[in-house]
From TrEMBL:
Domain HTH marR-type residues, every copy: 27-160
Classification via Gene3D superfamilies: Winged helix-like DNA-binding domain superfamily/Winged helix DNA-binding domain
InterPro entries: HTH_MarR-typ, MarR/SlyA-like, Tscrpt_reg_MarR-type_CS, WH-like_DNA-bd_sf, WH_DNA-bd_sf
Name assigned to this protein: MarR family transcriptional regulator
GO biological process: response to stress
Pfam entry (one): MarR
Keywords of this entry: DNA-binding, Transcription, Transcription regulation
Entries under SMART domains matching the protein: HTH_MARR
Alphabetical list of PROSITE patterns matching this protein: HTH_MARR_1, HTH_MARR_2
GO molecular function, one term: DNA-binding transcription factor activity
Length: 190
């Protein structure tokens, strides 16, 4: 990306800053590069194939989840999309306004909301996903099919580590306490 430091330069700067600090460099590189790769891929896809359909990454992921899983409760869509229920509310309302998603009450529990794709939403996903997948192939273009399988497998293992042991680790790090509430970046005025 023009005007930004390269990944190689960032790694050299981090190494110089950390000096003799006892850190696990390989694991740090994995996590840093997961973040960098996710950001680069998201930005590329939003500025290319998703832009022509006026979709954000989050909106596309919500559509994808509903497209794959079919009609689903909002809490399940939010969980699968990796977003909060509050974020899903805003995204799903926007998609509903555009005629891509339908919201309906749950037949046996009036507190729950179900989301499904409209015919227009189904058509959009059938049209957009092949283009999206072409960009996935572009993004992974320097990797062989075998390397793609290896990277995908390694990333699955990272996700499984957090899913299977993350809560236990968090409890140990916080001595069993709940995490402090998240704060916005704003601080109260004195």
């Amino acid at each position: 990306m023009p005007g930004q430091r390269s990944i190689t330069e960032a790694e050299k700067l981090a190494e110089a800053k950390l000096g003799g600090m006892p850190v696990r460099h390989e694991q740090m590189a994995v996590v840093a590069n997961i973040y960098r790769a996710a950001s680069a891929v998201r930005q590329h896809l939003e500025n290319s194939v998703l832009r022509e359909s006026d979709l954000t990454w989050t909106a596309f992921v919500v559509l994808w989840v509903i497209w794959v899983w079919g009609e689903s409760e909002t809490r399940h869509v939010a969980e699968e999309a990796g977003i909060s229920k509050g974020t899903l509310t805003g995204v799903s309302r926007t998609l509903e306004t555009r005629g891509l998603v339908r919201r309906a009450g749950h037949p046996s529990d009036g507190r729950l909301v179900l989301l499904s794709l409209t015919d227009e939403g189904e058509e959009l996903m059938r049209r957009v996903f092949p283009k999206f997948n072409e960009e996935e192939a572009f993004v992974a273009g320097q990797l062989s099919d075998e390397e793609c399988r290896g990277v995908a497998d390694a990333l699955r293992r990272v996700v499984l580590q957090v899913e299977e042991h993350g809560e236990e680790r968090r409890l140990a790090l916080l001595d069993g306490a709940e995490p402090a509430p998240r704060r916005s970046g704003r601080r109260p005025k004195a």
